[in-house]
Amino acid sequence: xxxxxxxxxxxxxxxxxxxxxxxxxxxxxxxxxxxxxxxxxxxxxxxxxxxxxxxxxxxxxxxxxxxxxxxxxxxxxxxxxxxxxxxxxxxxxxxxxxxxxxxxxxxxxxxxxxxxxxxxxxxxxxxxxxxxxxxxxxxxxxxxxxxxxxxxxxxxxxxxxxxxxxxxxxxxxxxxxxxxxxxxxxxxxxxxxxxxxxxxxxxxxxxxxxxxxxxxxxxxxxxxxxxxxxxxxxxxxxxxxxxxxxxxxxxxxxxxxxxxxxxxxxxxxxxxxxxxxxxxxxxxxxxxxxxxxxxxxxxxxxxxxxxxxxxxxxxxxxxxxxxxxxxxxxxxxxxxxxxxxxxxxxxxxxxxxxxxxxxxxxxxxxxxxxxxxxxxxxxxxxxxxxxxxxxxxxxxxxx
Length: 399
Known about the structure:
Elements: H1 15-38, H2 46-64, H3 76-94, H4 102-124, H5 129-133, H6 137-162, H7 169-195, H8 209-232, H9 240-258, E1 260-261, E2 264-265, H10 270-288, H11 294-321, H12 332-356, H13 363-390
Antiparallel strand pairs: 1-2
Helix pairs in contact: 1-2, 1-7, 1-10, 2-3, 2-4, 2-10, 3-8, 4-6, 6-7, 8-9, 8-13, 9-10, 9-11, 11-12, 12-13
């Protein structure tokens, strides 16, 4: 299976394989971090791990139409349910112990009950084990990969429910086995996609995948801005480390899925995918190990937001300023799009500057900017959906 590494050459990696491989690499990182944590050599933020895992579960539900109990396909109902799981993961990351035992119970259901249910489905359904055995070498790999992931998820959920990350080396072992199984399964899935290119593709959903990611980023920003108000009033604790870590994971997903970065959209090449993996590793570490990467990630995220705002304004307005002297009529929906993108770029500039310049804005104003950013992103999704109706795309979002 050859891989071409040109910087401008598009990577042949289906969306589901990219998301699955990202999840596996992040779980391997979780297992690697939990090894020194279990020996008391590193501090750990339990809510950061729980929120990160819930966010990954939501990502699979919203982007791929896959739940811990089966693959019902993308639908409006599953999109809403995934948004609820994502919101619980985001809040769990940001505010320590606000949701109590709910995240651990939910993860127990997702990993332990879900893993057992999927393993039983594999054994009992005619379109699973009996069918896969008839696929030869590819089918054997598929059985091994699914069995490893399903069975290792059962003890992982139990360990998370017990919430014993320190002094328990077995949770690190289970996380490493699970992460390795997910990476192996992503390779098997890529093999299946290339052997049977017309099979197993996800059906169309209520939104294109890139719109779903915008929706997820908007939800993230809206919740972050809303929570910062009581945080700055001293009413709630807050984990800045986990907030930056989860934001880095969001950047990573956008880079792996579509080549979208905070600085703009680029070719979804293998170097871009590797850069996305690096962002995911940094984000995972920051979610689990408090405060260690905060100075570095604050600078990185701040400059990325400033650069993204400047480049976005340049890309948007420079062609308009250099356009024809005789103005042409512009459809109202495009005017809404230009206004929305301009607002987002300006908010990005303000947010990035506030991260780099101490006391540039009051804390309450920063929360308002982030909430406004989230609201404008959600409105952008609405505008893009309307734009698709006026100018229908030639095909679904590329994967």
